[in-house]
Amino acid sequence: MLKRHAIELYELTRDERGRLIEEVNELAVCLLKIFRPVKVNYELLGNQVPHVHWHVIPRLPGDPAPRDPVWTVPHATERLPRAALAERIAIIRQALKGGA
Q1: Using H for helix, E for strand and C for coil, what is the string for the chain?
Q2: pTM for the complete prediction?
């Protein structure tokens, strides 16, 4: 995990970029095991939050627009109840530790 602030990918050293993509890949594998998506999308934006950070998005079988960028799909915001959110976070964290 990167321990310093960077806005652009080119600000990272070659080693940092390599470690970062390996961590993104590790997360994608965990999401694959947990959610069984048909595709995983990766976004490295930083337009609103000026910091190198990834959005790793599992595209699920019921996706209404599987070929479109996730940001362009009109949908109602759906928030998980607090307990369900905590459970999902725990499942992902456990999978990242090698438990899934």
Answers
A1: CCCCCCCCHHHCCHHHHHHHHHHHHHHHHHHHHHHCCCEEEEEECCCCCCCCCEEEEEECCCCCCCCCCHHHCCCCCCCCCHHHHHHHHHHHHHHHCCCC
A2: 0.84
